[in-house]
Design goal:
By secondary structure, the chain is mainly α. It has two domains: about 325 residues, no CATH class; about 35 residues. The protein is built from 16 helices and no strands. α8 packs across α13, α12 packs across α13 and α14 crosses α15. It starts with a helix and ends with a helix.
Length: about 375
């Protein structure tokens, strides 16, 4: 609850930063720069599917390839859209991903363990990618001030993932959470149904022990981050102010670092744009072009995310209709308490209807 209020409190701050950037550089100048690039910028939307495909491959490895790559890639797009566009908590995308993955992989504990380990791998990749960006920006611009500022921010945030990793690696944390929740809510609470904290701890431990597998997932994710920097390179090329590959990598890496550090601001609104403007200027990019780049990246995020969310809702509706056609949502009368039946029916009459409905369900399943 506190995290939710912090995120909503950060929203006006982000909006304020974005407004200041637009007023300072002039909306007309930025619109002119984007207009010169034209509709070619729309190619950045489908291009974003490539780094997500590499990310999905890392998840597929952690799932022991129990789900097809195209299916996991689609879930990866939905996970990202939920995390970045919807007013959910920081793990909203991961929870949706677990739910969708169970459409194909019915092992709830195994799917949950794969997502938890994948999140830990993602954190490690983010730090490695940020370190690469720091090295590149110092080598290209000799801006030691950036190294000190961003490096200090990364160093100060490091204890949190290290503590989380230590707790998970130690084992027993999810079983402890399950027992605490059962004590707080009661053993029969709906939220606790189907949860086995002890097994989840065991599945996570089994995955973490496979260091070769985890390292391969790390490399696939890191490759996705590196390929994702091509968006910055291509966008600046279209906007008429190309930079080097190293420059694009540095801008993308440190933008990601700043965005994750400012997690209390929903979607990094304003913070991401400010980071892109400041970092792009270090490589000689004009302010108008730098802000245009920031807005293009934001527009791509919104368009790609909206398409992913629309596909998710479409898939949910199709699945619901399919379940209804198969009768999977039918509730037999035997599951309805007799007290809930009309008072004009006798107890014997109610049970006759119950047996009739049970026979009908059994007949459909046999066919």
């Amino acid at each position: 609850m506190i995290g939710k209020w912090l995120r909503w409190a950060g929203l006006p701050v982000g909006i304020g930063i974005l407004i200041v950037l637009l007023l300072r550089d002039g909306v007309s100048d930025v619109a002119s720069v984007i207009g010169q690039a034209g509709f070619a910028l729309l190619w950045l939307v489908p291009f974003h599917a490539l780094p997500l495909l590499l990310d999905a491959r890392a998840w597929q490895l952690l799932l022991d390839e129990r789900a097809p790559l195209p299916f996991l890639w689609w879930i990866a797009t939905v996970r990202e859209a939920v995390s970045r566009l919807l007013p959910s908590v920081g793990v909203g995308g991961e929870l949706v991903g677990i739910r969708l993955a169970r459409w194909r992989v019915h092992d709830a504990s195994g799917v949950s363990a794969s997502v938890i380990v994948e999140v830990l791998v993602t954190i490690a990749v983010q730090y490695a990618f940020s370190a690469l960006g720091l090295v590149l920006i110092v080598a290209a611009t000799a801006q030691t001030g950036v190294l000190k500022t961003v490096g200090l921010a990364l160093l100060l945030s490091l204890p949190f993932p290290l503590i989380a990793f230590a707790l998970i690696r130690r084992g027993g944390i999810f079983h402890a959470i399950e027992r605490w929740a059962a004590h707080l809510l009661g053993d029969t609470h709906p939220l606790l149904q189907g949860i086995d904290g002890r097994r989840l701890d065991a599945d996570i431990d089994a995955l973490m022990r496979r260091t070769g597998l985890v390292f391969r997932a790390f490399l696939w994710q890191l490759s996705g981050y590196v390929i994702g920097a091509a968006e910055t390179y291509w966008a600046l090329e279209l906007l008429g102010h190309p930079v080097s590959v190293a420059g694009a990598l540095a801008i993308e890496a440190l933008t990601q670092a700043v965005r994750h550090a400012a997690f209390i601001v929903p979607a990094g609104l304003g913070v991401q744009e400010a980071a892109v403007v400041l970092l792009a200027q270090l490589f000689g990019v004009d302010r108008e072009v730098a802000l245009s780049l920031a807005l293009v990246k934001r527009m791509r995020e919104v368009l790609f995310g909206a398409l992913a969310l629309a596909s998710w809702q479409g898939a949910e509706m199709l699945r619901t209709r399919s379940l209804v056609r198969r009768g999977a949502t039918h509730v037999p009368a035997s599951a309805v308490p007799v007290s809930a039946l009309p008072q004009t029916q006798s107890h014997t009459h109610a049970h006759t209807h119950a047996r009739r409905d049970e026979a009908a369900v059994a007949d459909r399943e046999s066919r």
